[in-house]
Amino acid sequence: MQIxxxxxxxxxxxxxxxxxxxxxxxxxxxxxxxxxxxKEVVQRAERNRVDPVTVNQLKDLxxxxxxxxxxxxxxxxxxxxxxxxxxNWIVSRGEFRVMRGAxxxxxxxxxxxxxxxxxERERSGGGSAIEGILGGILRDVLxxxxxxxxxxxxxxxxxxxxxxxxGIGNAFAVRVRLLTRERNPENSRTxxxxxxxxxxxxxxxxAYSQGSPPALEIVRLSPGRAxxxxxxxxxxxxxxxxxxxxxxxxxxxxxxxxxVDGKEIVRTVDKGLNDxxxxxxxxxxxxxxxxxxxxxxxxxx
Length: 301
Fold this sequence. Notes:
Blueprint (H helix, E strand, L loop, with lengths): L2 H17 L9 H19 L4 H14 L5 E6 L12 E5 L2 E4 L3 E6 L20 H14 L10 H4 L3 E9 L3 E9 L8 E7 L7 E7 L5 E8 L2 E9 L10 E7 L4 E6 L2 E7 L7 E8 L2 E12 L3
Antiparallel strand pairs: 1-15, 2-5, 3-4, 4-15, 5-14, 6-11, 6-15, 7-8, 7-14, 8-9, 9-10, 11-12, 12-13
């Protein structure tokens, strides 16, 4: 390979971190243009058998600064004061409302999520056997084991759910601006993410639960089953009563990330679902939440 080309590669490797901010959306055209140029340099370097260490450094820069989701699929801030058009959101249960300047607001009272009475074998008083059986079933639903942990409240507890139809590929970036409207550590949980099918029981969701400590989970849904792909227990800052940007990203190779205000807090890989999705859904399983903005980006199929 010519000395001139080698110098260009090394110059790009040294200057990219200094001259570029991380690409955060397709609007960062200048950053993405330079990243695409760097991809071409990497390809030429590989063809000409440049030192593998140098090539790997360049690839790392590409991964760090690239934004592969170049196509905007959905951008919604509810500024029109309506969720029935542009796009059309459908409420399947519970209540949602739009407040101008605030966005989409949802509230599910947590006082209705109290635990059921214990089954008869744990009570000192009387009661029928059927009451004990039902109590045990409800307790199992409220306290799911590891295999079903994640979204059990969807069928057992009062919830609110809203969704919109949008074609989403297997690689996507979902970004919401979220505000927690009340602090109730017990039984407060919301989920949002992609779905497939009329029952919306197939897809990926990011679940946020308040508590001590609060938790963020990547949940993989399939009919009759919810599996926690990765969980983060720790301070996120989402409980301070201010709006925060929360992101769920998925790459073509199954790599997934969760970011809060631009800071990565979860990184994992899951190849359990290699499908396209039919839309985006929000589920409130307890508490009050305000979605000021929702954006979804994808890649060419």
